[in-house]
Write a structure and sequence with these properties.
The protein is 42% helix and 13% strand. It has 232 residues and is α+β, with helices and mostly antiparallel strands. The longest helix is centred in the last third of the chain and has 18 residues, at 157-174.
Length: 232
């Protein structure tokens, strides 16, 4: 056994070789011209593979037009359970574009409008309602949503972006000679901690802001400084 100071390096995972039918036929042709061992050494295939390919040569020749490994095409993978997938995802994204919280209850309310029969059938086929909750959670995760804590802001993202652009234009028009590496922008912002543990589904990579949300938590002020060239 290696001592504690000299641990053995981890063994690399050896992946299974999956040649195409055209590669198998080529290996058979090389083996017939030379030997099985030489064909395996030249083409890089295990020596034990080629004899089995030669035994199935007639079957492989019937598929000689196939030049790649067989791929999963058509109806493959898991069967979709939730109906109207596109409509539900669009509804969830529309709520987030309006900076509204998206929860599993919102998803269920959307499905109740046109898919009430499916909901009742699904609930009867499961031992507990918790399976329905997990189904909606997995659906949100698969379609680009993840759980975040609710964050409140007084203005929308569009208003904040317009304010930022207007201030930047006004500042550079007034001070055109200032270099970016000597320009610092400092801003105070409130930071909340010990917040409530309520979470919601947000678009992965998007914001977590929710309009008209209220939180009872501790707050502290943080000073953020960034240089004009992007270095903090």
């Amino acid at each position: 056994m290696p001592d504690e100071g000299h641990l053995a390096p981890p063994q690399s995972i050896k992946r299974r070789i999956r040649p195409s039918i055209a590669q198998k036929l080529n290996a058979i042709a090389v083996a017939e011209r030379t030997t099985v061992r030489e064909a395996a050494s030249t083409l890089g295939f295990p020596e034990g593979y080629i004899p089995s390919w030669m035994a199935n040569q007639a079957k492989l020749k019937r598929c000689r037009d196939v030049k790649a490994t067989k791929q999963n095409t058509g109806k493959s993978g898991a069967i979709r359970i939730i109906p109207d997938v596109h409509g539900l995802v669009t509804y969830m994204k529309d709520l987030r574009r309006q900076e509204m919280a998206v929860t599993s209850s919102h998803m269920l309310q959307y499905l109740r409008v046109d898919q009430l029969d499916w909901i009742e059938h699904y609930m009867r086929s499961r031992r507990s309602g918790y399976h329905s909750l997990r189904l909606l959670q997995h659906f949100a995760e698969r379609h680009g949503f993840w759980r975040q804590r609710i964050c409140h802001q007084k203005k929308s993202q569009e208003e904040l972006e317009a304010t930022r652009i207007a201030f930047g234009k006004q500042f550079h028009d007034k001070h055109p000679a200032i270099d970016m590496d000597v320009l610092y922008n400092s801003d105070e912002t409130g930071m909340y901690y010990d917040m409530c543990s309520k979470i919601f589904w947000a678009i992965r990579g998007g914001g977590s802001y929710v309009a008209n949300s209220k939180r009872h938590s501790y707050r502290m002020t943080v000073l953020l400084t960034v240089r004009g060239d992007g270095k903090k």
